[in-house]
Amino acid sequence: MRDLEPASGLLHSIDPATGETVGSLPRTPTDAIPRLVFQAREAQRGWGALSHGQRAEVLRPAAARLKAEARRLGELASREMGKPLPEAVGEANYCADGFAAELDEIVAALADIVREDARTQSTLRHAPLGVCAAITPWNFPLLMPQQSVLPALVAGNTVLLKPSEETTLVAVEYTRILNEFLPAGVLTPVVGDGAQGRALVLADVDLIVFTGSRETGKRIMADAAPSLKRVILELGGKDPLVVLDDADLEAAAAFAVRNSFRNAGQVCVSTERIYVARSVREEFLRKMADNTAALRQGHPREQGTTVGPMVNARQKAKVVAQIDAAVSAGATLIAGGEPRDGNFVAPTILSDVDHAMEIMREETFGPVACVQAFDSDDAAVRLANDTPFGLGAAVFGRDLARAASVAERIHAGMVGINQGCGGADGCPWVGVKESGYGFHSGPEGHRQFAQVRVISRAR
Ligand code: ADP
Which end of the chain is more exposed for a tag (fewer CB within 10 A), N or C? Predict the structure, then answer.
């Protein structure tokens, strides 16, 4: 349970690979948050009076500044949460390189829409909602803030960003760069943990954009309910991969290893459950084990490291407890499982698992891939859908019609056939069931950051 009492003092950011303090910042006192929200509301009047295009132009020069600082931002992110340096710098570059196109996509998505019939002409406007609270996690410490903040700002809202307590320094740096161009009060960082997050949710905000765990998402929704605040919740997953008997096993195993162990498994669309046709199970497991042996776990800033530590001791303990419980209940360790120092968990493959085990039901968020055999496509679909989550999924099979039929029947927001679940440019990031409530990205996602209004007159 998080401490939700008013918190003050310093927030220390700890390097999970070494235990060293990366830096410290004063926490935003929880009782100062209503005043910050009031200031954001004052600033919204001027910001909201600009057009979508004008707001995008204010933000546009920040792209070059982000690009110039990408290396430094990536290094800071890697030190704060432990992802290998090339991945962290890659994330910073991705944010900088995609910044301008993202602005253009948001402006286009929020353009007026005219509808008319014989008597009435109506204009649908995408107006600001007001003040937005953006609450973000640590696993993509730059991308998550960017995806929450840009559509909110271009839509004309002012934003208070409360980044994860694990990655505050890099998120505050991100806001500092945007604030070189934004008017005062338009984007305000809030420093702290769940206490500050909750204070923000309870304050006079109009929209809450949250990415994080399902449990915290439910708490936020409950706290938002009394005043019917808008919420966009991007929550966890327990993504399945279905490997059909005609699949390219080389490709499926390479995908499984990449997508289970990337970012030490700390990705909401990590492959956590793998269902493989019984006839190809042994060969698939062998190929997975070979691919896993080629990974190099180590210090995130050491050249060649592909898997870093878990973000903190709490996360490690949760992952290790799930592995130990599964092994006690009869699961077989194909790779990993040995104790590691500090916050490290070895990339682990388990077979002989079933849905009675917690590791097949609850989100693991660690470098663990669990493999269960199935005997028919219908059984694979049933297993894939036996979860309260529904974020991503993948199906591998050479017969595309058959693979597509399995993919269509998996109840997830995003399903990939012979690839990961991420869609083409312009697609939203969307979950079903308890993985999401509202969604972001792509034109459909961007519009959720605005209030649709209808202005009508006689023709
Ligand atoms: P994790 O435990 O993996 O960090 P959380 O879902 O708890 O995932 O955290 C995601 C974000 O939500 C973080 O920025 C965190 O500080 C914030 N947070 C945690 N609890 C609350 C809460 N009750 N209300 C609002 N925000 C919260």
Answer: N
Task: Give kind and range of the element (H or E) at residue 275.
Answer: strand 271-277
Q: Mean pLDDT, consecutive 10-residue segments, the chain of 459 residues?
A: 53 97 98 98 98 98 98 98 98 98 98 98 98 98 98 99 98 98 98 98 98 98 98 97 98 98 98 98 98 97 98 97 98 94 97 98 98 98 98 98 98 98 96 97 98 97
Q: How far is the CA of 193 from the centre of ligand 1 (A)?
A: 7
Q: What is the DSSP letter of 61?
A: T
Residue 270 near residue 236, CB atoms below 8 Å:
no
d(CA 77, CA 365): 18
Residues 143/91, Cβ–Cβ less than 8 Å: yes
d(CA 286, CA 290): 6
| Nearest residue to 424 (alpha-carbon basis) of 447, 397, 437, 443 | 443
Q: Dihedral sign, CA of 339, 341, 342, 346?
A: negative
Question: For the chain, how many helices (H) and strands (E)?
Answer: 15, 18
Do the strands 332-335 and 368-374 form a parallel or antiparallel pair, or are they unpaired? unpaired
3-235+433-458: CATH number: 3.40.605.10
Give DSSP secondary structure letters for 359-419.
GGTS---SSEEEEEEESSHHHHHHHHH-SS--SEEEEE-SSHHHHHHHHHHS--SEEEESS
DSSP structure class, residue 297: B
Any idea which residues carry the catalytic annotation? Answer: 234, 268
Rg of the chain, C-alpha, whole Å:
23
Label residue 53 exposed, middle or buried (CB < 10 Å: 0-12, 13-18, 19+). middle
Q: Phi first, then psi: what are they for 217, rounded to 5°?
A: -60, -40
Answer yes or no: are the C-beta atoms of 432 and 411 closer than 8 Å.
yes
Q: Which atom of ligand 1 is nearest to the CA of 198?
A: 24
Cβ–Cβ under 8 Å, residues 138 and 164: yes
Determine whether domain 239-417 maps to CATH 3.20.20.140.
no
Domain ranges of the chain: 3-235+433-458, 239-417
Pocket of ligand 1 (CB under 6 A): 2, 135-137, 162, 164-165, 193-194, 197-198, 201, 212-213, 216, 219-220
